[in-house]
Specification:
Number of helices: 14
Largest sheet: 2 strands, parallel
Order of helices and strands: EHHHEHHHHHHHHHHH
Structural class: mainly alpha
Shape: globular
Radius of gyration: 22 Å
Strand content: under 5%
Strand order of the largest sheet: 1-2
Helix content: 55-70%
Amino acid sequence: MASLLHRSPLTLASFIHTFLPPPLLYYLTNVLAILGPKTFVYRLALLPITCCMAYRAAVTLDIARGFLSTDPARLEYMNQALVLIMFTVFTRSLVRTFSSLTPQRHQEKQLALDAADLTLNLRGVGWNFSAGMKIPAHTRPLAPTSAYLAATGRCLAIHIVGFDFVHYLSQLLAPTGGIYDMAISDPLVRNLRATVLTILVGLCIYGAIQVGSDAFTFIGITLLGQPPSQWPPMFDSPWLATSVTEFWAARWHQIFRQEFLALGAKPLSRVAGRPGGVLGAFMVSGALHLVGLWGMGKGTDIRVLYFFLMMGVGVILEGFWRRFTGRRVGGWMGWMWSCVWIVGWGPFMADPWCLSGIMHSVFLPQIVRPSVWLHRLATSILHSVNL
């Protein structure tokens, strides 16, 4: 991969001529995909242009330095988001170009709006290709819309506070380094700290995605006029999963399900059956997270790919268990097994993320961080008690 050391800060001009073209070309690909098989030649001709433009944007733009020139490393996650966006444009352009299934919306409006929804609707809610996707049941009142927005606002506030608290705690434990502190001589204490940080990193990822989901829900409903029914919950209490399969297939977010299935599961299942399909899906997931880590500007770490492959191995083992015992993995023992397997392999994901500097990042200014207020208040109280 190209070096990210000489990227240019994001400006209005570079946003227009470098950032915007890939999403617009992807939108045009979606227009052609909706029109059906007759547009395949045009989609095929558009694909290399889209991929080249997406690659150019990923390796030449520096969003972090465009916003914070003095210490851009603290906003490096913005470049990670940039790379993930462009990688998604690339993978979904591949899917739209070669898929034999014409995308169809359950409630068609008009071509331009349908293509916009197909471009921005990450999970594909309401589209025929999302059949079989586990969508969490709505937990907020769908009518009136004002009640749904009020509930979403409360949820957004709670998740911002929760995310900030977990992120602040992670910063205290691992401000710039990885999850392993080799200065701790006791291996039990050292690994216990690493396990705690692994869980905190997972909670940070959950919180960040949930905050983004709530924010985009507001935008979709208030600015785009979408109905609340189009915004089901992003997660389904993943901490309650009683199997590794349930965690990834039903309770975790399904944002990238389209490319995992089309580019990983389906091709490899033809070669190696269900085990091949499972590993294929997790391999694409690993590649996506590997590229995202690279976007942080400090190289990448193959352990991220190993983490997701081991998640696939866990799913395959559960399939063997069901085949030989006739029973699904579940219950409290299934919950314990899932926790041990996911958290046990979690350092392969958490350590590279911490080493990339993600915990050093600034998501909220210090002056408005709830965790900072709480820390200062607790310190003040303890100081006054000691006096």
